[in-house]
Every structure is written in structure tokens, then in C-alpha cells.
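Whiteboard transcription, Tuesday session. T.W. wrote the C-alpha cells on the left side:
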């Protein structure tokens, strides 16, 4: 049992320490803008807008304007309108894309905290089971808890929604550090296997 615990402890250390390095790297260099952003002015404007409500209002205004232009028009006329008012269509596309990206990141941030709380509960439950001499159910539950923690604390890579990206990445970095500390706390608690074990 002791060699298995040591092996799992070493593997978890490697995972969380490596992940901490990735998190810090992403915090420092992960959200650098692309040189090509200068050629997509509408996307840059959308990304620079801090308030999502303002973006939604901009999208609503542009979308209503486009719908009014396209109303009762045939396919060929709509194509002509798109060419004539290309900047309007570009603005709608960029605003829509940024809103979707922000919504996606907000959902991911919510899920991050929900599932890491679930992982923490599994770690605590597994530790209690292990210490009450239900060694294998306890150990497997602890491993599952750290697995959930590791999966949800892994950094993501994307473009857009800069504020949400930073918030998400800071949260993931904090959770990775918490997982590393929790690993050492759990190791201290269960490092020496109990003599009497129940299946």
C-alpha cells in the first residue's frame, strides 16, 4: 500500500506543479493580442468594451438596422445590401462573436467553481473513509476528487473575452495552488496506512 501511495503522491505533484507553471505562464503571456488584430477594427472595438450590456445594446441596434435594410428584399438584393453596408455586417458579426465568447467564459467560470467544490467534497469524503479504515474506497474517492480538481483547474486557450479570460485564469491558478496544498494535507493525513482495513 505504501509504494502505491508514494507513486500516486509523486504523480499528483508532477501534475499540479507543472500545471502551476502553465497557469503562471498563461497569466503573464496568455492574453497577448495578435498583430493581425489591427486589421479587424470591429473585433478590437468589441473586445475593448468592458460592459457586456453595452455590447448587447450595440448588437441590438445594428441587428435592427440590418433587418430593416433586408426587409422584404430578395436574395440578390440582400447580397447587394451586404456589399454596400459591409461595415454594418462586420460590426454585427464582431459584436455577436464577442458576446458569445463572454457568455461561454462566464459559464465556464461558474462550472469551474461548482466542479472544484465537488472535487473538494470527494477529497474530504475519501480522506474520512480512508481514516475510518475503508482504505480502498477512501483512496479511490480521494484520487477521483483530485482528478476532478486537476481537470477543471487546467488552463484553457482562446481568443477574445479578455476580462473573462483573466478572471477564469486567475481562478484556475488559485485552484491549482489550493489543490497542491490539499495534496500535502491529505498526504499528511493518510501517508501512513491504517493497519486494520475494511474493503
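and on the right, the sequence the group agreed on:
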Amino acid at each position: 500500500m505504501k509504494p502505491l501511495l508514494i507513486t500516486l503522491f509523486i504523480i499528483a505533484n508532477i501534475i499540479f506543479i507543472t500545471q502551476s507553471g502553465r497557469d503562471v505562464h498563461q497569466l503573464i503571456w496568455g492574453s497577448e493580442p495578435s498583430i493581425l488584430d489591427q486589421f479587424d477594427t470591429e473585433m478590437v472595438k468589441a473586445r475593448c468594451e468592458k460592459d457586456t450590456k453595452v455590447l448587447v445594446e450595440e448588437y441590438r441596434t445594428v441587428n435592427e438596422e440590418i433587418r430593416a435594410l433586408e426587409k422584404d428584399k430578395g436574395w440578390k438584393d440582400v447580397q447587394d445590401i451586404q456589399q454596400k453596408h459591409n461595415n454594418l455586417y462586420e460590426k454585427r458579426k464582431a459584436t455577436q462573436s464577442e458576446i458569445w465568447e463572454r457568455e461561454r467564459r462566464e459559464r465556464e467560470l461558474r462550472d469551474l467553481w461548482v466542479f472544484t467544490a465537488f472535487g473538494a467534497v470527494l477529497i474530504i469524503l475519501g480522506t474520512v473513509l480512508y481514516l475510518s479504515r475503508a482504505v480502498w474506497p477512501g483512496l479511490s474517492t480521494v484520487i477521483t476528487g483530485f482528478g476532478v480538481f486537476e481537470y477543471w483547474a487546467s488552463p484553457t486557450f482562446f481568443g477574445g473575452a479578455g476580462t473573462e479570460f483573466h478572471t477564469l485564469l486567475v481562478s484556475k491558478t488559485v485552484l491549482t495552488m489550493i489543490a497542491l496544498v490539499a495534496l500535502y494535507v491529505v498526504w499528511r493525513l493518510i501517508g501512513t496506512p491504517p493497519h486494520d482495513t475494511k474493503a
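Someone added at the bottom: The mean pLDDT is 81.
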